[in-house]
Write a structure and sequence with these properties.
9 helices; elongated; binds dinuclear copper ion
Length: about 350
């Protein structure tokens, strides 16, 4: 091959490689990683992308060069030279991809093993290492509770920065899937089993928690937030919540049950500041009870524990979770029934 041809090949390769690199680097394909695990996944992503760009540049250079250089001239009717393979070339184009694929699998295996590793407490005196959070998925909301802090529960995920967290994910109804895009990993929430996802958030901030498995009518709205704060702020929050649990239930406990069980993710109820329209409007409960032909409180109670007994016209059956009888204590059920009855009469 003449020197001029090699220079042309390399020049074409650089142009295509630069174009592919620009597309990879200038478009924000992935969110900025906000956990150690996501940082490692990003490394694998860029490692593979760099290899792909190099191969693309090589293939594009050879194709473009051949199309221009070896195209049929207008007056050329001759046959091409009879070529039968090229052993040296075949060895090269087998050996290089084999080496690259092996490198990718080694890097991926190392990252996978590191990401699935749950670091264990080095000293019992450190209450936050690792911090266990029980994640409960349910149509159509998340509940996060903290066994190390008397099982305080929160509709948002609060975790301290730079602390290993062990998310124990389960579901009480259908399959859901837990995903914080900035943390890089997804894990299914399956009824009857607990799946463990280790995550070490390394950036403070508020990130979306997304349900990423189609789980019913409210799937698209099944979102929460992950709030990553300093260890000090996290401990202050956790201790404050513990005190609230210890205090006797106040007059607001009906609202607490309403919020903690995600009623606000589907319904409108002005006293609770809820404005969703998946389920019937709870501001209009008295009129709905009348249509069902039942006294208000009895109607509300029945609609919570046996939601298909009467379904407001215009709304589908089987969307309201049927398991609140099991999820709520009698006191909680009484409180939320009273809260809804009182609030809807205003
Ligand atoms: Cu839960 Cu989609």
């Amino acid at each position: 091959m003449r020197r001029g041809s090699i220079v042309q090949l390399v020049a074409i390769g650089i142009v295509f490689g630069a174009a592919a690199a620009a597309v990879a680097l200038l478009v924000p394909w992935l969110p900025d990683p906000a956990s150690r695990q996501a940082g490692r996944i990003d490394f694998v992503f860029w490692f593979v992308t760099a290899i792909c760009i190099a191969i693309f540049a090589l293939v594009a250079a050879v194709i473009v060069y051949s199309l221009v250089k070896f195209r049929v001239r207008a007056d050329d009717d001759s046959d091409g030279p009879p070529i039968h393979g090229h052993t040296g070339l075949e060895i090269v184009w087998t050996a290089i991809p084999a080496a690259l694929v092996t490198a990718i699998s080694i890097v991926s295996a190392v990252v996978l093993a590191k990401n699935e590793d749950i670091p264990h407490a080095s000293a019992a005196s450190e209450p936050l290492k690792p911090l266990v959070v029980d994640v409960k998925a349910q149509q159509f909301f998340w509940t996060f509770s903290y066994p190390a802090f008397k099982d305080i529960a929160s509709p948002t995920l609060k975790v301290p920065v730079n602390t290993p967290v062990e998310l124990r994910i389960t579901s009480v109804d259908v399959n859901h899937s837990f995903w914080v895009p900035e943390w890089g990993q997804k894990l299914d929430a399956v009824p009857g089993s607990t799946n463990t996802l280790p995550v070490t958030p390394d950036k403070k901030g508020t990130f979306p928690v997304v349900c990423t498995e189609l789980c019913g009518l409210g799937h698209a709205l099944m979102r929460s937030t992950a709030e990553v704060t300093s260890s000090k702020d996290f401990l202050a929050w956790a201790k404050g919540q513990q005190k609230k649990i210890a205090a006797p239930a106040g007059s607001s406990s009906g609202k607490a049950v309403f919020d903690a069980n995600g009623c606000n993710t589907c319904h409108t109820f002005t006293p609770a500041g809820a404005n969703k329209k998946i389920g019937p409007d709870l501001d209009k409960l008295p009129a709905e009870a009348q249509r069902a032909g039942k006294p208000l409180e009895q109607f509300i109670r029945e609609s919570i524990v046996n939601p298909n007994a009467y379904v407001e016209p215009g709304y589908p059956k089987n969307v309201m979770p049927p398991n609140f009888q099991q999820l709520l204590s009698k006191a909680q059920l009484d409180a939320v029934v009273k809260y809804l009855a009182a609030g809807s009469k205003q």
